[in-house]
Amino acid sequence: MAMRVALHSVLKEGREAGYEEVHATVPADLLEALGRAGITNWRIWRSGRHLFHLVDCEDFTAAMAALDRDPVNHRWQEFIGDYVDHFETTDGAPAGPSAEMALGEVWELRAQAAAAGEEG
User: Fold this and answer.
1) E-strand spans in 48-107?
2) What confidence category does residue 89 fall into, taking pLDDT thresholds of 50, 70 and 90?
3) Cα–Cα–Cα angle for 51, 3, 44, nearest 5°?
4) What is the per-residue pLDDT across 1-56, written as a single tens digit (0 to 9) for each?
5) What is the pTM of this model?
6) Core vs surface per residue 65-80: b (16+ CB within 10 A) or e
7) Do the strands 39-47 and 84-87 form a parallel or antiparallel pair, or are they unpaired?
8) DSSP, res 100
9) What is the mean pLDDT of the chain?
10) Which of 55, 71, 98, 111 has its CA 20 to 30 A from that of 2?
11) Which of 64, 107, 56, 59 is nearest to 87 (CA)?
């Protein structure tokens, strides 16, 4: 079953424009590494220094573990570390070592509408 995970990271002061520039086109080998890890989509929104990520994958914990072992991702993390200060941590929803990165879902329109439809 596919899952969608939200993340929140914070940029280093003054690195906002540069972060967007390097994400205009990320390296092809990184796209391949994300695909190998089971990530089917990754979207990022920015508000000031705050980044909000939405990751679609089969298994978030497994995907993060695969990326932790991938030298392509290691190179990217070293590079992008010049821009990103840190990822916020939370109590997270998925189980496993990456759970502290995942934002807990509060509400979904579609889920509530479906539940209301089942009741009526």
Assistant:
1) 50-57, 84-87
2) confident
3) 20
4) 689 999 999 999 999 999 999 999 999 999 999 999 999 999 999 999 999 999 99
5) 0.86
6) ebbeebebbeebeeeb
7) unpaired
8) G
9) 91
10) 71
11) 64
Whether the CB-CB separation of 106 and 91 falls below 8 Å is answered with: no
* Cα-based torsion angle of the residue sequence 82, 52, 90, 15 in order, rounded to the nearest 10 degrees: 20
Q: Which of 7, 5, 15, 14 is nearest to 83 (CA)?
A: 15
Give the mean model confidence (pLDDT) for residues 70-94. 87
Name the residue with tokens 């509060």.
106
Report how far residue 64's alpha carbon sits from residue 38's, in angstroms, rounded to the nearest whole number: 9
The residue length of the chain stands at: 120
Binned at pLDDT 50, 70 and 90, residue 105 comes out as confident
Do 86 and 28 meet the contact criterion of CB atoms below 8 Å apart? no
Question: 52 pairs with which residues across the strands?
Answer: 8, 45
Kindly report the number of other CB atoms within 10 A of residue 62's CB atom: 15
